[in-house]
Amino acid sequence: MAIITISREMGSGGIPIAHMAAEKLGYTLIDGEAIMQAASDYGLSPEAMEQADEKPPHFVDKLDTQQALDLHLIELIILEAALKGNVIIYGRGGQDLLKDIGSVLRTRIIAPFEDRVERWSEREWLDPDRARYLVRKSDQQRAGFIMYYFDRDWNDSLNYDLVINTQRLSEEMAVQLICNGVKDQNLEEIKASGKATLADLILRKRIEIAFLSSKDVDPYLLEIEVKDSVVTLSGQVHSAMEKTATEKMARTIEGISDMVSSVKVVEYRTNPVEH
Q: 4 Cβ partners below 8 Å, 6+ apart?
């Protein structure tokens, strides 16, 4: 069956709905706990995970470069889990990370703000004012994360296939709607092509991680495309040496069958321009 992504507002009931849907479908739930369990295999520490997971940038160059690397590692964990199939991706911008995959049911769980505050207060045994602060902060943080990294309004309903308001619908009904939706024939018919696209996305992610990990490459001026395991590099670098390092790095990623490069060398100016 197709992949499911669940975007949720804090206190909307997304957590129990995700768990119940995964159990009913026999799917693997890829949430914060599952990512944390896999993190060490990808060189991610719990501290790094905490700093990068669904967080907007610090706007401090050194911190943001490390955060970008850690976020890419989290995304690689998600993509490789998605390639195995039959997964629910909970949060983490899953609907945007997999935006090019047609066989994805993009789900959004919402509820009115004060309802969510009341639920969170009861669940965590919090003073309502404290719960209100945390819910508002969570909304702002997740909206900022999606806007900065994916350039999208978190609340835009057009980016979801199924939006469920748990003020009116029970958790059981929400689970039923998700389980019915993922079996839609339209999603099933394009499942095979989605798997090939996912494999290319994983290769692209590995190249991005290699560039971010390297002290010899400035990754922010480069563009990477992968199609049928062939990588195309474009953009610019600051020296012929950097271009060579970039191209060599991309070629040596396991799974890449060929590479096409149109990367340009634009050197820094070392002397003032004469008038």
A: 21, 27, 87, 88, 89, 104, 105, 107, 178, 182
